[in-house]
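Two proteins follow. First one:
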Amino acid sequence: MQIRLLDCAAAQQIYETRMVQDFPAAELKPFSAVREMMQAGIYEPLVLEDEAGHLQAYAWQVMLPGHRSALLDYFAVRKNLRGSGIGTQALHALAEYYKERLDDLILECEHPEEAPDQAIARRRIAFYLRAGACATRLESRVFGVRYQILTLPCGGHAEDSVVGQELKELYRMMVPEPYYRGNVIFYGP
């Protein structure tokens, strides 16, 4: 599996052709926000392709220079490949890709207790855990949605308190005031 960093035009194409189908509209930030973060150097949209260059999956991260954790903002496997092991392969490839730069990729999973479909939320968390992610004692509530926080070890594995601090800093960059206050809440160490 090959990983390729997208430029703004290629990222917009994936956004308009794939992401609008793979994610509910309420979960998609406007592409203008993605573009701004890319231009600021804190957003890294990647595609994972087979040897022939065909898209298998995509993973878009929010990263702060000098930090050892990044937020896996969007991750999806091509619909016709779901359930085939491609998602696990993609996560392993991401961990390898980032091992020199990051200790962990932070994964936010909708908390099963409050998810509209609890079974899907549980399956998603179980998938990440089977793929090598670790549960943390952290949770968040972002614009009313409760999340359970997992981490995918890359080049190390940070303590929950470090992951929590890095996640707070990532959100401070993504969500400006006055929207942050009262809409982005963290729980745990």
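Second one, unrelated to the first:
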Amino acid sequence: MTLLQEQIASISDVTADQRAQRLAQAGGAWNERIAADSGTAQLTYTVSGRGVGSVATEIRAGKHRFIVDEPGALAGDDVAPSPVEYALAALISCQVVVYRLYAQALELTIDEIEITAEGDLDVRKLFGIDESGRAGFHDVRLRVDISGPDSADQYEKLRQAVDAHCPVLDLFANPVPVSVALS
């Protein structure tokens, strides 16, 4: 069994009732915390990384460590997904969380959810060939496949709630001030 299979096995044994209970408890706890002190709603995430190999990066996020790399065509060793693949993965995983959270809040059932993200990127800016375009994605498409007993209209309302509340979708859809400093 691979590490990924072991990780999936350790989390896939959650029943729908257990998921609902965990979501309700987490939501209730955050509501209480924020009601008592609105400052607790402000979170800062810190992730760090160091260069390894040709162009790979070892990322540290809390207790987790993982590698980001590039395919051989972009000078990498192709030992892990690329930064832009991780960006799409972050979008997909955030969507899954928010779909689960708002399905619970709207009393909808999701039996299965699978999301596919496609992002179009023109590498001419990356390589300094043409400075007129964007360095990042110029188009991202999500396909959300949900199965469950609720109506298509109810799942569409769920999608609208998710689109309005997903933090990573917001990062993709709206400019975010970023400052960079060399130290």
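SUMMARY FIELD: The chain has five helices and five strands. Strands lie at 47-52, 56-61, 64-68, 112-121, 137-147.
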